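Can you give me the bound-state structure? Components:
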Amino acid sequence: MSHPLPMFNLAPAHAPRSVVVPRTPEEVAAAVRAAAAAGEQVHPIGAGHGWARPIEGGVALLTRELAGVQVDAAAARARVGAGTTWAQVIAAAAPHGLAPLAGSAPAVGVIGYLLGGGLSPLGRTYGWAADHVRSFEIVTGTGELVTASASSHPDLFAALLGGKHAPGVVTAAEIDMVPLHAVYGGGLFFDAADAEAVLGEWAAWSARMPDEVNTSAALLRLPDLPSVPEPLRGRCVVHVRVAIVGDESTGRALLEPIRKVARPIVDTVATLPVAAIGAVHADPEEPMPVLEAGALLASFDLDAVRALLGAAGPQVEAPLAVVEVRRLGGRLAQPPSRPDAVAGRDAAYGLFVVSAPVPELFAGPVPAAVGGLARALAPWASGRFQPNFVGALNQPTALDAAWPDEVRARLEQVRRSYDPAGVINH
Ligand SMILES: Cc1cc2nc3c(=O)[nH]c(=O)nc-3n(C[C@H](O)[C@H](O)[C@H](O)COP(=O)(O)OP(=O)(O)OC[C@H]3O[C@@H](n4cnc5c(N)ncnc54)[C@H](O)[C@@H]3O)c2cc1C
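Here's the bound-state model for the whole set.
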């Protein structure tokens, strides 16, 4: 029987055998031990933004009762309970002039995001969110409460920094934040007719920008719904997003080539309080059924733009709501200061595709469109994947291909040590 769980993606029908909502780490440990004794798997659930496949059987463990944020403003640090969303951390940090390295959508869960590495719209300037984690508190697959940090269980800590599937249930994380009040940020929306000119210029511009410039570009097919503001409603548009760390005049000068390439339909780029960082991508907030896929790209140039538009551009009847390319590089490309498992440091761009929210198209047209796009962009693909951007439409082998063999072997070793019976879903 399918079970309603608090998930953003409504496509998979979940059917856990039971649902538990522990209020303390000790209750988490008791739930894990009980599941292990019953030979069942535990599925930890944060804010529900990452479940692309159905949960079948086992115990759905909702972490929401562990949520909470304590900010140590003097140390620019926060302790964040599992089940907390980035919106809660952003709100707690902003009055102190601090910002966490949250993702594009504030409703995403902190722990799931950190476990995947955490690609922030501030990432080129400050690095991966996992680079700013001090420690995790975790109930391991054997039901033990452990603190993982650089000095305590360092093998486990390295695996949790980007290894995606934890060999346990994380109950809290301690993170560093950056001193930041505002960015020069927002979005420029261009008409579909300007797609090649805008994306071509964006590809060249984004490749040469300094680390202060964080940017992505997306081809959006926006629904004809009241939730979409005019004049964007029901249109296909190119959405260039920026979050520039610097003052307004510097930001304006850096962004000028994009503003000049065509006349934007809507231009929201201005000084933006960092508490409103979600406005940069303006991701949808309402749960919906979608299929997704992602890939990392070694480069993205004018030929890649043409290939992308040929496969999924405005002239093509493609059931794809979002085709997004994010610029990586900058501090995201820096080697880590300690062992970790973050995937994507060596990629120049990340591609992410979200289907139209129309389940009738999921069996044939959506996979065909995504497959066509993947084939068209294959010459630019790095062959690796960022785990936070692997979706149901990726090949089952994509997650394995996220990491080099040496890192994958390390992750498997850590799993064998901390969850030898495979109690935690992975
Ligand atoms: C609209 C949208 C925008 C996004 N933007 C970004 C972005 O900008 N950058 C980025 O890096 N990612 C982004 N993501 C991906 C997102 O970071 C991952 O899907 C993340 O795993 C979501 O975490 P969650 O708690 O919301 O999801 P959940 O579905 O609750 O969990 C996702 C995964 O994390 C595991 N997990 C969650 N909590 C725990 C825990 N306490 N202990 C152990 N395992 C746990 C779950 O078992 C599951 O495997 C986005 C996703 C969406 C839907």
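A couple of observations. Residues 8, 43-51, 63, 82, 103-105, 108-109, 111-113, 115-116, 118-119, 166, 169-170, 283, 388, 425 surround flavin-adenine dinucleotide (CB under 6 Å). The chain has a mean pLDDT of 96.
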